[in-house]
Amino acid sequence: MTENKAGKVAVLWRGDPRTRSEATPQNNRYRGVFDALAALGIEAEPAVYDDALADEVRAQLLACDGVLVWVNPISDGQNRVRLDSLLRDVASQGVWVSAHPDVILKMGVKEVLFRTKHLGWGTDTHLYRCASAFHEEFPLRLQSAGPRVLKQNRGNGGQGVWKVERISGMTDAADVRILQALRGSVPEDLPLGAFMKQCEAYFANDGCIVDQPFQARLPDGMIRCYMGAEKVVGFGHQLIKALIPPPPEGPDTPAAQPGPRMMHPASASPFQALRRKMETEWTPQMMQHLGIDAASLPIIWDADFLYGPRDASGADTYVLCEINVSSVFGLPDDAPSEIARLVRDRLR
């Protein structure tokens, strides 16, 4: 480390060998993060990752003080099993990793919705750890509690997230209507038993399924609360179309596409009640309940909220539908500078 540098970090994302060989701080979508790090005297270098390049990337990370990681849990048939093992290894040798895989397993999986359902962001959430419990409990819950949303424990982009509603009498051979949150999905009617059999794959590798009620105010949009460690660094509001049936014209038409995510600073007046809840109540409570200290919180993470039922005074309530830790992007305008400031503080 040179005297005028505050430390050296790698910025890691997934790519192929050519992308790795050609990567510079300026020719990728993380350019704003690289610029913000450089402005604080932090040396940053690209670390493009592929499983075939694991040994090369490991050697690179061991020469750094820290690494910021942007890799989805599932992408084009690839997962993070080998990468997470690598990150645990370099962390054990003194390299600071954000987000550490063990922290992701605590807060960046759908199980967190069940473990923290007692917080103010929670709702009627259930967890199935095995196929037998799922087959025994879910049909009765679907019959008595209305449309439900099922979520596999690790996934992104709507993969393994389903709206399920009954359309006839509830036996294992009865029909249900299902709709996946994956873009381009269309509703499908099929026997409940067949759908549940399909979901059994989500229990592989110690997986589980989380079960929440469908939120009727989904058309009002989703609020993404961007967090820099313990503080809100911005908001994104988007009129999403996931779990909403496409129009008659089809799932690929413009009317079926989500609206743009409108970014807002942390000070945006419509979201101050949510900001106060996140900073003073829900995040500290989550940390205590999950056993996460301040030094282990991810540098950048987000919590996605749907609007819940209005309270007695007519004010909005919020229901947590996901926490994203593995790969949070795009970012509000203020986020890169906050990321850089937090990196500097962690390196110190």
Main attributes?
348 residues; alpha+beta; six-stranded antiparallel β-sheet; five-stranded antiparallel β-sheet; 10 helices; 26% strand; globular
Q: For the CA atoms, what is the radius of gyration?
A: 21 Å
- Percent of sequence in beta strands: 25-35%
| Apparent shape | globular
Describe the biggest sheet?
Answer: 6 strands, antiparallel
How many strand elements? Answer: 17
Mean pLDDT, to the nearest integer, reads 94
What's the arrangement of strands in the largest beta sheet?
7-12-8-9-10-11
List the total number of helices: 10
- One letter per element, helices H and strands E, the order comes to EHHEHEEEHEHHEHEEEEHEEEEHEEH
Low-confidence stretches: none
Terminal-residue CA separation: 13 Å
Structural class by SSE content: alpha+beta
Helix share of residues?
25-40%
Structure, described:
The structure is a single chain. 30% of the residues lie in helices and 26% in strands. It contains ten helices and 17 strands. Strand 9 and strand 10 (175-180) form a beta hairpin.
